[in-house]
Amino acid sequence: QCRFGPRCRFLHDVSEYLAAKPADLGRRCPLFDTFGRCPYGVTCRFGRAHLGDGHQNLLDAALARQWEGKVLVRNGLSKELQQRLRKRKFSFQKAEEFLRGLRAGKGGKAMGGSMEDTPKPEAVRSSQGAEDAPNPEALQNSREAEDAPKPEALQSSRGAEGAPSIPTLGPLTDEDVTKLRPCEKKKLEIQGKLYLAPLTTCGNLPFRRICKRFGADVTCGEMAVCTNLLQGQSSEWALLKRHHTEDIFGVQLEGAFPDTMTKCAELLNRTIDVDFVDINVGCPIDLVYKKGGGCALMTRSNKFEQIVRGMNSVLDVPLTVKIRTGVQEKVNVAHKIIPRIREWGASMVTVRGR
Questions:
Q1: Considering 15, 133, 200, 330, which has the largest number of Cβ atoms within 10 A of its Cβ?
Q2: Residues 65 and 93 in one domain
Q3: Residue 268: inside a domain, yes or no?
Q4: What is the spatial distance between Cα 230 and Cα 169, in angstroms, rounded to a whole number?
Q5: Alpha-carbon dihedral 86, 87, 88, 91, rounded to 10 degrees
């Protein structure tokens, strides 16, 4: 019995539904032939292939048993993780440690003195008025500078191995006191293999599956915006999905600032299964370029360096970078940037030469 009664706009008689349904597209159902069952049942456009007596959906038990426990598509966004991201309850311990070093001025030494964009506490204090009435923006900056840990305090809060002393519960493990060295990271072995370049609006999962059948060895997802991922947008997380046939798979991120990019890298490092993470420093779209992302990072070397070093510090997989030959016409700068990118910690640089 339908609780809506005569007001219901749906059919409840299967025979009546099948009589009004368009003719099937074929005699064989691809899903039933592959997985042993079709989840669409009577609504399938190949329904006659797997409907038995009484319009019951048939099941090929032997074929379905072969797919039990197999995850065909990975890297999905769970409701629990989405709620944590939207309520800002996801903990970014490694990213916050790196960002604290930047705010405290410690990043200037670790990053070769490239901290011109970070305001000094003295400069913030000198920006106050003569009547000792600071403007709200300067007051906010000064409070952040005072709350940031001093280099001496930050150094003293670390252990002998340099690990931060964060209160934890449970037994002590090696991961609590030992940091992963660069030589211990997973290697990206793609010498002699065919790499399918990431293609925005084109390189989706079905397209990559087709390319895998034609011989592609390494695949990469479409460009994903880091701020959208941090907000838990389902449409953006769909770009990270990985099919089980993709042996070597990476994701590509776009962003303009070290805080969002570093946090996004730690988020993906802890929640999805990838073999490498790529930074898009080649996107020429105005929407991305005007915000300082994409190929605009090639002219913002300080932010570029902070992003690469920050992401590399939180990732357990190799970090790669995609750049262009330059930003302005007939002014090539890639040959000057590539050696520096290697010093910052990237494992590979790809050049899109236009």
A1: 200
A2: no
A3: yes
A4: 27
A5: -110
Q: Give the DSSP H/E element, type plus range, for residue 212.
A: helix 205-213
Contact status, residue 334 vs residue 325, Cβ threshold 8 Å = yes
Number of helical (H) and strand (E) elements in the chain, helices listed first: 17, 7
CA distance 278 to 291: 19
**Helix (H) or strand (E) run with residue 65 in it:** helix 61-66
Q: Average pLDDT of 324-341?
A: 89
Q: What is the C-alpha separation between 14 and 42, in angstroms, rounded?
A: 8
Q: Confirm if 325 and 314 have CB atoms less than 8 A apart.
A: no
Domain span holding position 33: 14-70
Token reading at 25 = 């597209």
Q: What is the pLDDT of residue 176?
A: 58
Note the pLDDT tens digit of each residue in 129-142: 333 444 444 444 44
Q: What is the pLDDT of residue 174?
A: 67
Determine the residue type at 113. Answer: G
Half-sphere exposure of 134 (CA within 13 A, CB side): 14
Query: Tell me, what's the pLDDT at 54?
Result: 87
| pLDDT of residue 12 exceeding 80 | yes
The answer to which of 14-18, 78-82, 275-279 has the lowest mean pLDDT is 14-18
pTM (2 d.p.): 0.69
CATH number of residue 346's parent domain: 3.20.20.70
Number of domains the chain is built from: 2
Sign of the CA dihedral running 182, 106, 144, 307: negative
Tell me which residues are annotated as active site.
Answer: 283
Cα distances (Å, whole numbers) of residue 72 to 67, 210, 252: 9, 15, 21
